[in-house]
Amino acid sequence: MSLATGPTEQSLQAVLHYELNGAFVAGPVEHPELIQENVIDEELVIVTPLSHSSVNSLHDVKLLKLLVFKTGCAYRAKLLQLLQEEGLLPIKMMEFGSLETIIGCVGAGLGISLMPRSIVAEAVQQGKIRCHELQDRQTIVTTVFIRRKDTLMTPALSAFLSEMRTHFS
Fold first, then answer.
1. Which of 47, 121, 127 is nearest to 79 (CA)?
2. What's the pLDDT score for residue 44?
3. Which of 23, 85, 87, 124 suits a disulfide with 11, CB 3.0-4.6 Å?
C-alpha cells in the first residue's frame, strides 16, 4: 500500500480509475461507484500574515492575493465560493504544491489562504501566521475516506481502515 497527496478532484479520479485503493478527500462525495467513510470534521480558517488586522468577514481581508493549491482543491473552491458570495474578486492567485510552502508564503506577507485549523495550528503557535474564524459562514469541511465498491479488500487495506477508524473515533 502506498500513500500519495493531491487535490480532491485528482484523488477522486485516481480512485475511480483504479490508480489508488483509496483517498482522503473533502466530502461529501456522491458517486455510485464509491464508498465513503466520514473521518473528521475540520474548521476552515482564513490564514494571514501576523501583521494583518483582525478578520471578521472577508471584507476585512486586505490582501486579496490568494495562495492556493491547483484547480481541483476543495479548500481553493471553498475560498472562491466564499469570496463570490461576498461579491469580492481575488486580485491574483498563486498556486503552490505544498501546505508548508503556502504557510511560509502567507507568513512572508505574499497573500492569504483558507486552510483547516488543525493544519495551521503549529505555525500559529510558533507565531508565524494568524488565523481568523469567519463568522456567519459555513466553514466546516468533512474529510472522508473514499474507495471503490468493487475494490478487493486486501489485508493491508483492511488493517489500514481498522487503524483509521480507531485513530479518528
1. 47
2. 93
3. 23
Query: Total structural domains in the chain?
Result: 2
Closest CA to 64 of 78, 51, 79: 79
- Residues 18 and 94 placed together within one structural domain of the fold: no
The amino acid that residue 76 corresponds to is R
Q: How many CB atoms lie within 10 A of CB 147?
A: 19
CATH number at residue 108: 3.40.190.10
> What is the percentage of the chain residues whose pLDDT exceeds 90?
59
Q: Are 113 and 70 in the same domain?
A: yes
Residue 1 placed within a domain: no
User: Looking at the predicted structure, is the pLDDT value of residue 2 above 80?
Assistant: no
Q: What is the pLDDT of residue 124?
A: 96
Residue 25 lies in a domain: yes
Q: Is the dihedral of CA 146, 151, 154, 158 positive or negative?
A: positive
Task: Provide the strand spans (E) within the chain.
Answer: 23-27, 34-49, 65-68, 92-95, 113-116, 129-132, 140-148
Q: How far apart are CA 156 and CA 104, in angstroms?
A: 35
pLDDT of the residue at 169: 80
